[in-house]
Amino acid sequence: MAVKPILFQDGVCRMLDQRLLPTEEVWLDYTDYREVAEAIRTMVVRGAPAIGVAAAFGAAFGARDIKEERFELFFAQFEEVCSLLAATRPTAVNLCWALERMKTVARNNSAAPHTELKNILLTEACRIADADIEINRALGRHGEKLIADGARILTHCNAGALATGGYGTALGVIRAAVEAGKNISVVADETRPWLQGARLTTWELMQDNIPVTLICDNMAGHLMSKGEIDCVIVGADRIAANGDTANKIGTYTVAVLAREHNLPFYVAAPTSTIDLDMEDGSRIPIEERDSSEVTHCGGHRIAPQGVMVRNPAFDVTPARLITAIITENGIAQSDYSTALANLVKGA
Amino acid sequence: MAVKPILFQDGVCRMLDQRLLPTEEVWLDYTDYREVAEAIRTMVVRGAPAIGVAAAFGAAFGARDIKEERFELFFAQFEEVCSLLAATRPTAVNLCWALERMKTVARNNSAAPHTELKNILLTEACRIADADIEINRALGRHGEKLIADGARILTHCNAGALATGGYGTALGVIRAAVEAGKNISVVADETRPWLQGARLTTWELMQDNIPVTLICDNMAGHLMSKGEIDCVIVGADRIAANGDTANKIGTYTVAVLAREHNLPFYVAAPTSTIDLDMEDGSRIPIEERDSSEVTHCGGHRIAPQGVMVRNPAFDVTPARLITAIITENGIAQSDYSTALANLVKGA
Predict the structure, then answer these.
(1) How far apart are CA B35 and CA A190, in angstroms?
(2) Residues 130 to 159 of B: which have CB under 8 A from any A CB?
(3) pLDDT tens across B212-234, in order?
(4) Could you say which of B220, B222, B297 has the minimum Cβ distance to residue A297?
(5) CA of B216, closest CA in chain A: separation in Å?
(6) Can you list the domains of chain B with their CATH numbers?
(7) What is the structure's pLDDT at B229?
(8) CB B214 within 8 A of CB B37
(9) Are the beta carbons of A215 and B22 separated by less than 8 Å?
(10) Full-model pTM
(11) Is some CB atom of chain B closer than 8 A to the CB atom of A185?
(12) Who contacts B268 (Cβ-Cβ below 8 Å, separation ≥6)?
């Protein structure tokens, strides 16, 4: 049973602190939307679908604290809450998707009594969390059909239970293949600088007894050249209308390597990750994070004081390198512009 | 003035401990060949040319301790010394090259008095160290002609002064371009797991005031796709007769990325790195090092206890991805089989 990284219990949102895994399992409690925003910004919680879920709880907590009873005044303050949450991380579109959904629910219930409206928003956050797991399971059922028995699958970063409400996108496909009785083994890129692969993907797959081998990011090409990888599955932070996909830094490199070795390269993501307003990947905002993530590792300095650093947190894989995009509504395999629009409509 | 990582003073070989850079600069003293072997194995000293130099001093120290005066008996023991040194690391051919050269010098002086033979061998080790710097400078002069003014050069691992007797191979070309008045900036891959790029390349380029920007290995593809890299230069641990080149793990990936973006990919290495007995790269032995290098970073555990790990220390870049191989005797740019044989003959 895959871990759920965000729980809602007794009016409190509990998050598994992903900065401390795998050496420590610490749960943090949140009841204030500003603290939820800080948790997203500092990566207590990360992964596009999971930060959507966290933001929804943040918005519900923000609504809970608003004193204005007249809807127009309430909604003006609620929009400020949502803006603060939306500004925490720029690349993943699920964050905005979840907040837009919360705002729509508020507007649709503008006539509800003040206290009831607040309850409706909290219920909606819980729904987003629960629905995400179902979405991942549906996505997994579609995706596992692409996976052969015995497949040795490379994944990058963590698109697992920890990156979602639970179950996972890329790792959801892997879990579904295992549940379908297939013999699957995983190779996990460690994914510098934040080491989501080394710290999170290995941890959650080992908890589920799915065989996983850890490598450094720069070893994937060598393993492919030796015939030790059969396909690649990754998640996504934002998919443009034409299929160009933003995902964790290094994903583009893995896609180039997969093409060089004629290996299928699959993207697994809910339709909430598809941004039909974004024509192609060239304008997806790429977050550049603090240089200390690169100059330090495990709290230890690994580079000289004062060295210049680049730290883009994401890159864009062009659609031409993607074999298929797997969603809860089905699979897009070519002509992404039409196929993705249809999958989103089917949502 | 580039650092020299191996010094010979008052009968003692001093090595800059490259495991501790850049946070600590500690010099260790060696007078025993077994300790030199251990220093090579544990990577106090690393880099193909530098371990050749270190092994030559190790052989000279081993010879110094041999009591047998009859040449046949002396040489039998000397060969044992050389075998122990040669077994420390399997991939770099310079190690064997240096030891073969020491054995040849011993054989050529079989008639010399016992004490004089020992001095001749120590002198030869010093010659190998000094010659390596001259070789790098010559290599740099040839190579810098390939580098345009204003070039933004990506390098992987450390093929610098620290990897050689001094000055460097890949970084020697960069130093020569700077000395020729060109405006050069360097992007250094951090080079997990051992972080030669983060720890060593940045450190030695900053000492020489050559602009250097540190990135994680998985960011190179993104920078190339954004047009921020003009060419790649790397060193080599062994070059097969057909031009296939073994170098630090991750080099192959960088070469695939360079080809994808139509960027020149240069290998810089002394002719002692060319192994004409090795027909192609498929049979170059690839060292697999301890899993703790991957599960830990800066002494800190970054992966779950008991996780499976792969840790190949090198990979092979096929000749077809290499734009030119730069040596002290000139540059090979195509038809590597003929060109490399001619460059070795010219040595």
Answers:
(1) 34
(2) 156
(3) 999 999 999 999 999 999 999 99
(4) B297
(5) 6
(6) 6-137 (1.20.120.420), 142-345 (3.40.50.10470)
(7) 98
(8) no
(9) no
(10) 0.96
(11) no
(12) B139, B143, B159, B169, B170, B172, B173, B233, B234, B235, B236, B325, B326, B327
